[in-house]
Amino acid sequence: MPTTSTKYTLGYGEAMENLLRRRTAGNSAAYLLPHLEPGMRLLDCGCGPGSISTGLAQAVRPGEFQGLDLEASQIEKAQLAAENPGCGNARFQAGDVTDLPFENDRFDIVHCHALMMHVPDTPALLKEMKRVLKPGGLLAARELIASASFLQCRRHSFGEMMTMFQKLVEANGGHPELGKQLKPVVRNAGFSKVLLATTTFECFNTEKEMTIVIDFFESCFFNPENRKAAIDHGLATEEQLARWQNQLQNCRHSPDALFAHAWGEILVRKT
Ligand SMILES: C[S@@+](CC[C@H](N)C(=O)[O-])C[C@H]1O[C@@H](n2cnc3c(N)ncnc32)[C@H](O)[C@@H]1O
């Protein structure tokens, strides 16, 4: 799929935020937490509304925590989230992760979650992350494996719909399969010491969780702009979109529905 633009596919609506709000450092950065110590300097790239950031800030306090995101509205939300007790060391600012506003060798840890998949130029991003890491510092990344993620509701497996979403992210310059390509990608960026490379699922099971998932699909992928993009790129027809949307609604209250995001996780040291 050719890269035609660098648009962020998912947007910043309420449904997307509800999906992100479930995340914590405990459930989304568990692989990193044992390596964090009070006093460390940590940078969270593409921090979004700060749901993971607050736990990371607490884990390194009284050390320095910096969160950065392209979108000013996300930074405001992250700042609000960090008003919780124990996050007084957290600072957030708007910025682009391919042009980090920090000096060389500043951080002990550079973390990102569901960020690299949306940044078209992966080598440029990793070069910047490596530049701001101290020698001996750790890069921690958790990225989507779209083809291993699934939505199952009785006899509907939504495979074609999931493939359409994957291709739409690709058409916007993103990398929805990056979670399973992390080892070669970081090695090509000069990170030769891999401490950990693994995969985990983020599962949605209860009716309340399925409401979050269905609202996310509805608002992030079936909005008028992405519907048009899917049709323009030849990824779906109007009839398919209408059918998938209808089947999605049937999932909303089904006790049999199960959704899972598959994630690749990597922890590497700058030598
Ligand atoms: C899917 S959200 C993930 C947010 C958070 N890390 C989480 O997992 O809860 C991706 C975030 O990356 C940000 N982003 C995308 N491209 C970026 C860039 N070039 N520089 C900084 N942030 C970027 C978006 O604004 C968005 O908030």
Molecular structure report:
It is globular, with a radius of gyration of 19 Å. It is built from 10 helices and 8 strands. It has helices spanning 14-21, 25-28, 53-60, 72-81, 122-132, 159-171, 182-188, 207-221, 224-232, 238-251, and strands spanning 42-45, 65-69, 90-94, 107-113, 133-144, 150-152, 193-204, 258-269. Mean pLDDT is 94; it is low at 1-5. Helix content is 37%, strand content 22%. The chain has a single domain (14-269), classed as Rossmann fold, CATH 3.40.50.150. The longest helix is centred in the C-terminal third of the chain and has 15 residues, at 207-221. Strand 2 (65-69), helix 4 (72-81) and strand 3 form a beta-alpha-beta unit. The protein is of the alpha/beta class. Strands 1, 2, 3, 4, 5, 6, 7 and 8 form an 8-stranded mixed β-sheet that branches. Helix 1 (14-21) packs across helix 8 (207-221) and helix 8 (207-221) runs antiparallel to helix 10. Residues 8, 10, 20, 23, 46-48, 51-52, 69-71, 74, 96-98, 113-115, 118-119 line the site of S-adenosylmethionine.
Q: What's the short story on this structure?
A:
With about 270 residues, the chain is of the alpha/beta class.
Q: Which architecture does the CATH hierarchy give at level 2?
A: 3-Layer(aba) Sandwich
Overall pLDDT: 94
Q: Bin the strand percentage.
A: 15-25%
In N-to-C order, the SSE pattern is: HHEHEHEEHEEHHEHHHE
Radius of gyration: 19 Å
CATH superfamily: Vaccinia Virus protein VP39
Structural class of the secondary structure composition?
Answer: alpha/beta
β-strand number:
8
